[in-house]
Specification:
heterotetramer; A: about 625 residues; alpha/beta; Pyruvate-ferredoxin Oxidoreductase, domain 3; Rossmann fold; 21 helices; 25 strands; globular; B: about 350 residues; nine-stranded mixed sheet; 12 helices; binds thiamine diphosphate; binds iron/sulfur cluster; binds magnesium ion
């Protein structure tokens, strides 16, 4: 049997039962690899219940620093009898399979083309611990120990991590370390360690990574920190997976960093609302009243917020919404990832609306963009929706460290205070003095005589007086379009990478790829693979809606543009067509919407397939561009 | 409704402690129907703010959607106002009050806005004890959408279109009592003497203060009382075109504490208001609920301050909110800076 | 002064105060013209309050039967001092102005180029009636009497109409007739009657109209009748202008036609829900349980229904929603018309969703399509949204009579009853047995042993078992796409008119226009005007989404296609681009979104302007199609 | 949670009047946590339906979203079920019951599903008196989203994450009483002897029947009672990884009418259940409200049938609904035909 080989380049998958504490142990495994300076990307694939169902944890190790999901399993650690049959089947030929052999492996689970490692996890723990809770829990730590031996993880790092985790609880540290050692020792004694797949510090790891100061964190925590640093003071929310941890983390940091030292009182308010309508209503109220306010939600919550988003658009109230997308429609797969709320967010609510969207691709960007979202919302006086997703929000990503410029000043946009009102020549809430579609707002309580106005979701004239005149209406909604045009220069511009040189290209077409958010990592990886195979593809990563004019130009410059995204209907492609007036034939969708993140492999396959079938058409349709 | 409002103001109008006249608390001209009870409530709010000498710009007015929710346009033109969406003003008010705990918040709503679409938010607003005065102009119907029964309409009441309401009306004051409101009152739009002090007290209360104000819709529905006596006025009405709304006078009333007053509404039906007597105990929640219920069983509407807990903990207190308004905090208070961030990075390696 | 002339071709506008009973009187005026066999289209332009604000009523008379709004005022009847200044200004030169001259006309309201008719309406009524209510009310009837003399309305028809209206109330009939006569007599004696604009039975009226059996009715009533005839039994709703009268009319007809003769009980249920979420929830529950159920709403309600629409899409529950559109976003102009909920409806809710839409253009079609909506919802097991608007729903339209085929059978779609279940080989709720994406459903209570399943908004396999498997998810949502493809053949196909022959065409481009709903009437009118001016334009009226394949072909066949609609963002154009993959450059928006219906004049102007600027570009962009 | 469920069934299982065994009322295997109170409620519903000999296919099960709302999957596999959206099951149930008045409707919800997001619909469901049994599995927290406080959580209760709830809990039984429910009961998930008959009575009641069932969430929150005694169990828990959920036994209890029972929950806290005594009067709504309130003030949860009005008019009656289910009506009953339409046309000319 040919065994899979690879230094710092492989995929390990853990198959567990949820509620058994396995995610913590698996995280320990991933984090140790990260501490060894080797790029790693862990992904927790969990069911929508609390205890007793299959759950998986994928850890990709990639010397080049590819963080997207890879697909395929090189080594499986399976401690869940429920899923074992499928789990065995999913291992790549030549791969490895570690399992609890307290009970012998059923005959039908035996394959010729993979290597088995039986570790009597249950037996060992029953023997070692008498507390049933520990018996359960430490099983996970034992297999991590065994994996450390098999893959050559630096043992001291694991120990350090445990000490950090249980700081102050010495008993727990020692029982965990003991379990770790048990597993390590068993593996060392029983198997031929390390395996042909293994880790190596330094080694083939890309130099720019070795030199980096990377951190390992998830997007939701980063967004929460962004809200802290961006000066958010009011958070109103309603629990929903996978966005819940945004506010959880905000609460945690705020309790630490936002307590008034004198009084012990809070420089923030968090309200768990009764539902998403109320959560958004509170944010609208707080935003109207001059506080930086935000909420976080996922699909169903976005639908429920639709009416309020329309109000905030039309009444021009700053609002920040963090949408951590999951698989829709409806309840869909609540613990699976997608990028499928794009249209629902961009055109949220009835009538003619356009909402500002941000598309972070890394935790670092979750942080930066959340900060920026608060500025944008106040500058543009409109909702700003950050479109994260479960994969980015809830999984740990290797990310450049968060950075903060202490010279940062919150940009509160065009707000007139008492002085401003006194010195303004003529003030009307909806007077477009500067011609950019953005008018001057005032806050309640600011001035005894001036600046009071009525905010409403109905039509009004420039002086904020209720109006049913068609002319007033048209000039107002046209101004809103003008404002949206202005927004193009405010929002983060798209990013391009220098093109990869390709020696012998196999196509005459000028190819490009557009993508955003968590589709970016696998897309970059795919583009490198395709370059290798003779297909040079230029890339642009979209970071915001409305789209920057660079996007139009970029598309113009190419014959065929792949739009890579994680939904069924190619929603970003639609949005681009709508807003940039692009001929559909130029934009080809590359999609994955199975709920697990898109892989480079899938992208490569789809692009190659489409080049096979498309290039002919395209050439004949646009002879001038061929 | 009075689109011609005298511009002239008496130079010697009385002033309040701040030197303001009542005209400084004026709003825009009402576009409600002539005689609508809501206009009387607007006037009462205006007067209450004047008498309590609250600086107009330190008040924020919030409402949902409906004839009643239009009211804030018609008083306190120097205050900011927010006419939000139907039934969801409670959440907007909650957010607003968190942003700046120093303003006085007046929420104005209708029975449709509060008891139907707004029921969930209303209950939770009470539960959170947001520091605001919340006034429902209760007419038992949806005025703005032309007279459908609302959820507070009495069982058996007949709408302008002739349908009989088969459902029991929701009693908002009882609900507020049950859900723990620290201030619960009820009054009648035309009873200025009772309503104004109630509003003043509600604004002074440091927590959620609820006032249910019976406010006849002269156009579509007047049947809020449990006892109704139809007259031929009503039949007469029936033959008028549906788009005809006759001009009417506002209804006002005056009666003493401890007495019951029959008020005849424009369609001839009569409601019976019973003013809590001066020895009514306002500090017993259970007793208050029973009193309201008993009055109802007797076909009367109990009015007055029904319950007061001056020490209830409001949301600002519960959340241990800083004294300085959140919307006034700057970078220093809010932004932990690069050093802290670097140490966070350190923890993530 | 040159006076405007015209037999059966002019625009009269009434300026009133709302709540004064004027709409009833103005309707009397319009209806009388209709009874004379002369095409008329009345439009009520009313404020969002109940009493005391300006309101207008436009009556267009058109011998050719153009029913769209025309714009311009030939004669103004103004009894509202609040708006009189604007009203005077809006009369076309050579036009006419009737007013209450109980008080003399202010100097600034006098123009040289229009003809004034003062009628002492108040004075007359004060003199004649002592009941203040009647004084108010009958003023309106007096001016209708005067207008009858001025325009030559057949007096007996007016009398008949009053007798119909007040049947059984003789006193009211006689006082109304008296008022009518007073006005008539005053005008006859005082003015030179009739005017150069006037009515004439037969006359120049287009023959196809003379022969027709037209009725005058509004779209909401027609939709309500459609719900009665389509077998709707459950209506759940929440009041909102302009959709309220749909359920009002349904209730009225149901009380008449749906009472069980034996028991006096009701073969229908109407529930006024607590809000739109609940209204849609009730419809979903009833539809799931096998009743034909519907709701009606407008913009804000549509936003609130978003989550439930996503559930119904994904759980495949038949639902009928009548969206009577008004001006958005948010509360917008609640008593003004628009076609601006298209995108919000087509992609309602988060995740990948596509909803079936119908676009009626006449009351007759409101009736037919509502009936069909119930069939479609059950055939396709999905929400069907009929996109009406305020203009169609609340105004009276001359329409071909409603027709009913007594052989009609409700098509309940693929529902297995007990026998069906017993004879089915293998049943799975989401098994695509027929390959059309539509599966067989069952109803609760149908069979003691078979067919029970769990309906949910989350992912499931073909056997309706909850599933988080990516494969199950993908095959399910792909099937939903297949179903949407199937729907193309079920929904009403678009309509084309025979092209108008144009002698000397001024363009080399093959031109076309696409439109739908209330944009259709003015669009047809515009196309005739443009044909006259040398621009042949082929037309296609869209009647449903998903789009029929004819639409693609039609667009393909033309060089430039105008998409005429009543919203700011060209939402239908976007939908067409998205779904038919049409190059944006081919589709040019013709828009009006001022809240009052689009006019032929505006369409003609925009098309001519765009031809001036566009034709050059287009030729150079697509040389092959020139 | 027990994904390995014995397939074997005893051939001599007792049968009910319809000849069904209790196994005929089985559902799918539960995916809830081991020891979750909700599983006990599922079992009670299953048994109640068996004992009342309701044909399984004539029952429709409806729910919202949450651990509790998953329950219907775990009983009555032969019934249709509808797991709708969060908090909006009441409207779905209303529509379903109108479509076919002949089925038995069981609604299952959670305290989050009902008292937070569902509050508005819940109140209006009661007001409409929809003919159904509505069971809330009340655990004072959001189980499925990992343990946030719900609106029924007690003031001062501490969540697994250590935060103290500053808000008063909503008492759903009191609310149902206030809003006019014709059947209001309360029980404990582990008290099969009390719960089963209550469920049977609720299903038999011809109108809206509400049962609030205290149902401990063994994983995130057990603090429903007013009196809590924390033990070191709790501290012990705190050092476990957050994704660890220990296996537990369901809690069951048995106590007599008129007595108070302390039930120790898995985290060591204690709740005090007080079973209404046999001479409790179930026909006095006001008295019931006071009893519930008094028990609460004493730190006890009053259980039992709290109020019953056997003659309340339900929605079908109020709407004068035809006897034949609406979903069975055909063209003959529904479609007035061409002649009628022609006469309508005539009226429009
Ligand atoms: C979401 C939504 N649904 C419906 C409406 C239509 N609507 C406007 S006001 C109103 C009812 C108002 O009733 P109430 O609050 O009692 O006020 P009133 O007019 O009686 O004072 C409704 C249903 C709306 N504006 N928004
Ligand atoms: C609109 C919407 N918001 C939020 C959620 C997330 N969510 C799922 S279950 C739940 C709370 C459930 O609490 P409860 O009803 O008490 O049920 P339990 O799990 O405690 O039994 C929430 C908030 C959702 N599914 N839909
Ligand atoms: S309709 Fe009724 S509530 Fe509305 S303004 Fe008129 S009288 Fe007042
Ligand atoms: S989390 Fe709580 S409520 Fe949910 S299944 Fe587990 S124990 Fe039950
Ligand atoms: Mg009202
Ligand atoms: Mg719960």
């Amino acid at each position: 049997m040919k065994q899979i080989k690879g230094i710092n380049d492989f995929m390990v998958k853990f198959a567990n039962v949820n509620g058994t504490g396995s995610a913590s142990a698996n995280h320990l495994f991933a984090k140790a690899i990260f501490r060894m300076g080797i790029p790693v990307s862990p992904r927790n694939i969990f069911p929508s219940n609390i205890q007793g169902l299959p759950t998986w944890y994928e850890v990709r190790v990639s010397s080049k620093g590819y963080l997207g999901r890879r697909g395929g399993v090189d080594m499986m650690v399976c401690v869940n009898p429920q899923s074992m049959e499928k789990d065995v089947a999913s291992v790549a030929p030549g791969g490895y399979f570690l399992f609890d052999n307290t009970k012998p492996l059923a005959q039908n689970l035996k394959r010729d083309d993979i290597t088995y490692f039986g570790v009597p996890l249950t037996e060992m723990c029953m023997r070692e611990y008498d507390n049933p809770r520990l018996q359960q829990l430490l099983k996970n730590v034992v297999y991590v120990g065994a994996m450390a031996a098999l893959l050559d993880i630096k043992f001291s790092i694991l120990k350090d991590l445990l000490s950090d985790q249980f700081k102050g609880k010495e008993k727990l540290i020692s029982s965990n370390v003991h379990a770790l050692e048990m597993g390590y020792q068993y593996a060392t004694e029983t198997f031929n360690c390390p395996l042909p797949i293994k880790l190596q510090i330094g080694g083939n790891v890309a130099p720019h990574i070795l030199e980096s100061e990377h951190i390992l964190m998830n997007g939701n925590t980063a967004a929460a920190l962004g809200a802290i640093y961006g000066g958010a003071t009011v958070a109103a929310w309603y629990p929903i997976t996978p966005s819940t941890s945004v506010v959880d983390a905000f609460a945690k940091y705020a309790e630490r960093m936002r307590i008034d030292p004198g009084s012990g009182k809070k420089n923030f308010a968090i309200v768990q609302a009764e539902d998403e309508l109320a959560a958004m209503g509170m944010v609208v109220g707080a935003g109207w009243n001059g506080a930086r306010a935000f909420t976080a939600t996922s699909g169903p919550g976005l639908s429920l917020m639709s009416e309020f988003l329309g109000l905030a658009y039309f009444a021009e109230v700053p609002v920040v919404l963090i949408d951590v997308q999951r698989s829709g429609p409806s309840t869909g797969m609540p613990t699976r990832s997608q990028q499928s709320d794009i249209l629902a967010a961009a055109y949220a609510s009835h009538g003619d609306t356009k909402q500002v969207l941000l598309f972070p691709a890394t935790p670092r960007e979750c942080f930066d963009m959340t900060v920026q979202a608060f500025d944008l919302a106040e500058q543009l006086q409109t909702p700003v929706i950050m479109m994260s997703d479960l994969d980015l929000g809830m999984n740990d990503w290797m990310s450049p460290p968060l950075e903060w410029d202490d010279n940062y000043q919150m940009d509160r946009g065009k707000v007139l205070d008492a002085d401003g009102l006194d010195s303004a020549e003529k003030w009307g809430r909806y007077l477009d003095v500067d011609g950019d579609g953005i008018c001057y707002r005032t806050l309640p309580g600011a001035h005894p005589e001036k600046g009071a106005y009525f905010t409403r979701g109905s039509s009004k004239n420039e002086m904020a007086v209720y109006s049913e005149s068609g002319d007033d209406y048209v000039q107002n909604v046209d101004r809103l379009l003008r404002k949206f045009e202005t927004a193009k220069d405010y929002v983060p511009a798209p990013k391009t990478h220098p093109p990869i040189e390709v020696k012998k290209t196999k196509t005459k077409l000028k190819l490009a790829a557009l993508f955003f958010g968590t589709s970016a990592s696998p897309a970059y990886e795919a583009v490198e693979i395709l370059a290798d195979r003779g297909y040079p593809i230029n890339t642009m990563r979209i970071r915001a809606f409305p789209f920057h004019e660079n996007l139009d130009r970029f598309i113009d410059d190419h014959d065929l543009v792949f739009v890579i995204e994680q939904n069924r209907d190619g929603q970003m492609r639609q949005l681009i067509m709508n807003e940039c007036q692009i001929a559909p034939v130029k934009l080809t969708s590359v999609l994955n919407y199975s709920g697990t993140p898109i892989t480079a492999r899938a992208i490569v396959r789809q692009i190659l397939e489409s080049l096979d079938t498309k290039s002919a058409d395209i050439v004949s349709l646009h002879p001038e561009t061929a | 409704m009075s689109y011609i409002k005298p511009k002239f103001r008496h130079p010697n109008l009385p002033t309040n402690a701040l030197g303001f006249t009542v005209a400084d608390y004026d709003g825009a001209i009402s576009t409600l129907c002539a005689g609508c009870g809501h206009d009387s409530i607007s006037a009462a709010i205006q007067n209450a703010c004047f008498l309590s000498a609250i600086p107009p710009h330190r008040i924020a007015k919030l409402s949902g959607i409906g004839c009643s929710s239009k009211m804030p346009t018609y008083f306190l033109g120097k205050s900011h106002g927010f006419n939000s969406v139907h039934g969801r003003m409670p959440s907007v008010a909650t957010g607003a009050s968190l942003a700046n705990r120093e303003l006085t918040y007046i929420g104005v709503s209708g029975d449709g806005d509060t008891a139907s679409i707004g029921m969930g938010q209303f209950v939770h607003l009470i539960r959170r004890n947001v520091n605001m005065a919340y006034i429902v102009a209760n007419n038992g119907c949806y005025g703005l959408t032309k007279g459908q029964d609302s959820a507070t309409a009495d069982l058996g009441s007949v709408s302008k279109y002739g349908s009989t309401n088969p459902f029991d009306g929701i009693d908002l004051a009882s609900l507020a009592l049950l859900q723990g409101a620290g201030f619960v009152g009820r009054s009648f739009s035309g009873d200025k003497e009772q309503l104004e002090p109630l509003i003043r007290a509600a604004m002074a209360h440091k927590g959620f203060a609820f006032i249910d104000v019976v406010s006849p819709c002269v156009t579509f529905n007047n049947h809020l009382g449990s006892t109704k006596s139809y007259t031929e006025t009503r039949e007469h009405l029936d033959s008028m075109p549906l788009d005809f709304v006759p001009m009417r006078e506002e209804i006002s009333t005056h009666y003493d504490a401890g007495t019951t007053q029959g008020v005849t509404l424009h369609d001839g039906s009569v409601i019976h208001l019973h003013k809590a007597s001066s020895d009514y105990q306002t500090d017993d929640r259970n007793a208050a609920m029973i009193s309201v219920q008993n009055a109802k069983d007797e076909g009367r509407i109990l009015t007055g301050l029904l319950y007061l807990d001056p020490n209830s903990q409001n949301l600002d207190q519960n959340l241990k909110l800083a004294t300085k308004p959140l919307n006034e905090m700057g970078k220093d208070e809010l932004c932990p800076g690069s050093r802290v961030l670097n140490s966070i990075n350190e923890g993530l390696r």
